[in-house]
Write a structure and sequence with these properties.
Strand content: under 5%
Oligomer: single chain
CATH class of the largest domain: Mainly Alpha
Number of strands: 0
CATH architecture of the largest domain: Orthogonal Bundle
Helix content: over 70%
Mean pLDDT: 90
CATH topology of the largest domain: Tetracycline Repressor, domain 2
């Protein structure tokens, strides 16, 4: 039975995605420039077929970057946690702390690998910049009632302080470099938010 054009297109798309996923996985595992042989082996396709899906290596790298970063964006959108601006403050603080830690846990390896390429890869930089804009918007919306007591310029500074504390780099430093526990990380993040909002520290 002859395979239909729809079937061939679907198989081509699956194989193309498998190649991109293989490239992302190998990069995360520490391979700076995975060979085509390694990519093909990981994807389960032939060496020759890789270049049926991409004109050259640069096109494949760009597509892999888009695929990896696109998979992160929905998680970033949810990183303020399950809270509303009208919820009690302690609940909002804990929600965004939980949301950012969960995001970190899910994307740490991917983001850590992407950061090493961000200086030379414009598309990765743009993805990171978009994520930071989303992050600042979440902080502004979630803590609007507390932030509105500041001048506009001071409000921006307070958002920056919270955004910096909740950033991937800050969490990675606390957890990955300094080896602090989850409980210590949570206490650090809650304290940083309260300090930025000029709130009295709690018992934690």
């Amino acid at each position: 039975m002859v395979e239909s054009s729809d079937g061939r297109s679907a198989r081509r798309e699956r194989n193309r995605d498998a190649v991109l996923d293989a490239l992302v996985e190998l990069t995360i595992e520490g391979a700076d420039e995975p060979s085509i042989d390694d990519i093909a082996d990981r994807a389960g396709v032939s060496y020759r077929s890789v270049y049926r899906y991409f004109d050259d290596r640069s096109e494949m790298m760009a597509a892999a970057t888009d695929r990896a970063m696109a998979s992160i964006q929905p998680l970033v959108q949810q990183a303020s946690g399950q809270a509303q601006p009208t919820d009690p403050l302690d609940h909002r603080i804990q929600a965004i702390v939980d949301g950012r830690i969960e995001l970190y846990d899910r994307v740490a390896d991917t983001v850590r690998a992407a950061m090493t390429q961000s200086f030379s890869n414009r598309k990765i930089r743009e993805h990171f910049q978009h994520s930071r804009r989303v992050s600042r918007g979440q902080i502004h919306d979630l803590f609007h009632n507390e932030l509105k007591s500041f001048t506009p310029q001071e409000c921006e500074l307070r958002i920056t302080a919270i955004d910096q504390a909740l950033s991937f780099q800050a969490i990675d430093y606390v957890v990955h470099d300094r080896r602090h526990s989850r409980d210590e990380l949570e206490r650090y993040l809650r304290g940083s938010i309260r300090a930025a909002l000029r709130l009295r520290p709690t018992s934690d």
